[in-house]
Amino acid sequence: MPSTTAEREAMPHGMPVHEVVLLAETDADTGLSGVVAGERLASLGPNRLPERRGPGRLRRMLAQFHNPLIYVLLGAAALTAALGETVDASVVLGVVLVNAIVGYMQEVRAERALDALEAMVRTEATVIRDGTAARITSDDLVPGDLVVLEEGDQVPADLRIVRTRELRVDESALTGESRPAHKDPLPVPHDTALADRANMAYSGTLVTTGGGRGVVVATGADTEIGHVHRLVGTTTTVQTPLTRKLTRFSKLLTVVILGLAVVTVVIGVLRGEPFAEMVTAAVALAVGAIPEGLPAAVTVTLAIGVARMARRNAVIRRLPAVETLGSTTIICTDKTGTLTANAMTVRQVVAGGQRWDVDGIGYSPLGDHPPAPEAVREVLLAGLACNDAHVVLQDDRWTAVGDPTEAALVVSALKAGLTAQDVPERVDELPFTSQRRFMATRHTGGVVYLKGAVERIFEFTGSTDHAAAEELAVRGLRVLAFAQAHVPEDSPLTEDALHGAVLLGLQAMHDPPRPEAVDAVRACQDAGIEVRMITGDHLGTARAIAAHFSLADDAVHARVSPEEKLRLVKQFQADGHVVAMTGDGVNDAPALRRADIGVAMGRGGTDVAKQAADMVLTDDNFSSIRAAVEEGRAVFDNLRKFIIWTLPTNMAEGLVILTAILLGTALPILPVQILWINMTTAVALGLTLAFEPREPNVMRRPPLPPSLPLLTGALVQRILLVSAVLLAGSFAVFHLHGGTLDQARTVAVNVFVAAQIAYLFNCRSLRDLRPHVGFRRNPWLPAGIAVTVALQLLFTYLPVMNTLFHTAPIGWRDWAAVVALAVVAYGVVEVEKWWRRSR
Ligand code: ATP
């Protein structure tokens, strides 16, 4: 906050526009020169918020210990130390440390993956430099830049407004006020509160209607949002409903296990066993039964899924979307640009009973074209005048700048030999909006050109003959009608003033379907997902295009306004659907927010839509939605695979101890050994499941209902089955072993680990037999197994390990038993799968 009078008076909202312009050494019409802008950028740095600083390294490391499970382990270490078992105590401590380091690294990795996403959805700004408008990335803005604001833009820096057109800005990100604030260039008193400074537009706020221009007065960390950012220091949460559910689940489990541990001690002591031994056993039970790897594995799996989606052009903005994507049952998609290429070419012009066919595809205006009759030229001129787009030759290709629909109209006019010189100067306009469905421009002398949806233009001209338009529409062409009116320059240009306009004719344009989108729609349908087309276009056109995608007529919703989109989302949700809905405009934001998966277009979409969305498509292409659904299902599969894989181990470890106490026999596996198993296998084996490629059939089965619990009855049964196998196997080898106690335990541990390796193969597919083996599809798997085997050999044969973990070298016969039991475990699960499938 400025304290001195001088500083306060230098605040831009208190100054008239010309002073601000003077102070910023810029020009209110032509902006900065490119040279000055470059110099300022070099000296002031990019217009970017400073790197988000998460918790410091030490803080983050310490946070790894803040976990009930770790408390249990630390308590266990203290108890063991008190009982004089210092080696065991230090092993437990060592394991706690390793666990913290692994957790730390996984967390950093996951966050880095998520942070990288933010950079993929960059905002751009329109800036006037040297008198011409250009799109640049917001990072390159400097103080003094003259920025053009349009509906749907995110304000890219702190701006002092110099010109407005019905400008309203949603400042809730900064002030919490949800009603959009009206903006106006007039100065306000110096002591006006931030929320009431009507002549300022602050970085990070959103233009909801209208437009305007402003001079940049602060960039990067100097902006108001930069101050807030510094104060608060954002925290990334990598939490989703699922991770929260799992955290709760592990807490509950911890309590249950602690209870069981106490029971163990009590039973043992009542049986006359030594207290110290019973405590050791209870510790073993506790550390064994708690699935310590679970929360980290979930985060990593989600992060990997997010990264995979990003590689396929679907950028996740809210992590829970990854989970929801897998259960999507209906996708409501735009037509233009998403299903079609949004590369418009006028094919036919209809005027005065004549038809003029237009050759060529794309935006090239070159080539030989038959001369256009006068009536046709009138229509083409209207299309050229009532237009904000143009075409340019870029790298030998003609490309559209602005709305492709309008660019097509420019091209058709150029093909007939018209040029910008033929258009009288524009005075004002009624801009196109999806609600209005038409646009009008007034030119010197009061001539007004109208263009828009046929029914809308016919309302003004009083025309009733739709035959020609219908005939073009059913061919899948987008038809626009053109009219001319006269509204004197001194009377306001309103919709009412346009009644009585004269119809000039029609232009019909072709927009080719995207071939890859045809496949993608079919893939979604095969996956049990309904696909619906939601378009602002004419029903006839929409149906003709839908037919290309084998979409039935009732999957087409035409002439839908943004409000109706919201209503559709609500209706589908009421019918029990999980809805993905695409959108790009400001008015789509409520529907995007309401949908279970709001999907915004990265190229054609407004910043407002992107902010409201859960996912942004960087290529605006329907096939990227399909990719995201596919990956979403794969993520969900992999999470379940990990859980299914990890729980039986924990359960069996707990059961081994409990059974030994109940039977009054020696422990087949010691607490430190249990810790060893959990720590090594969770990382080296379990995490490899997070990298599993999606199963070939992910898109050939119906969506999972969102209410479906992570563990279905069938999976719980499998967990019990595998636990029983592990329990029986380890008990058998322990008791049948003829060697020393240490050797018997070493064999039991190896049985556990070998069975976990075998079971990992079972878990690569939850349902299919002969899980699509092939190491190449997941190179982490053989690597993880190799590491595990090496670790087990060290554990068994290295003298230090023998001392630390109370192990002893074993012979080849023992290994044979280990491998045999692993094979049996694998077979049992596959038989169970087969039995379940055959039912
Ligand atoms: P979708 O992307 O869902 O297919 P759309 O692009 O067809 O929708 P809108 O952009 O809302 O939907 O356009 C609705 C109708 O308004 C179009 O069918 C067309 O008749 C008319 N229209 C489109 N663009 C313009 C424009 N720039 N000027 C005037 N009228 C337009």
Short structural description:
One of its GO terms (cellular component) is plasma membrane. The chain is an alpha+beta fold and 839 residues long.
Description:
The chain has 839 residues and is an alpha+beta fold. It has 4 domains: 5-40 and 123-222, Calcium-transporting ATPase, cytoplasmic transduction domain A (Distorted Sandwich); 238-309 and 629-838, Calcium-transporting ATPase, transmembrane domain (Up-down Bundle), CATH 1.20.1110; 324-340 and 515-627, Rossmann fold (3-Layer(aba) Sandwich); 345-510, Calcium-transporting ATPase, cytoplasmic domain N. Helix content is 48%, strand content 15%. The chain contains 28 helices and 23 strands. The strands form 4 sheets. Strands 1, 2, 3, 4, 5, 6 and 7 form a 7-stranded antiparallel β-sheet that branches. A hairpin with a 2-residue loop joins β12 (390-394) and β13 (397-401). α5 runs antiparallel to α6 (86-120), α13 runs antiparallel to α14 (404-415) and α22 (622-663) packs across α24 (713-736). The protein is elongated. The termini are far apart. The model is unreliable at 1-6 and 232-237 (pLDDT under 50).
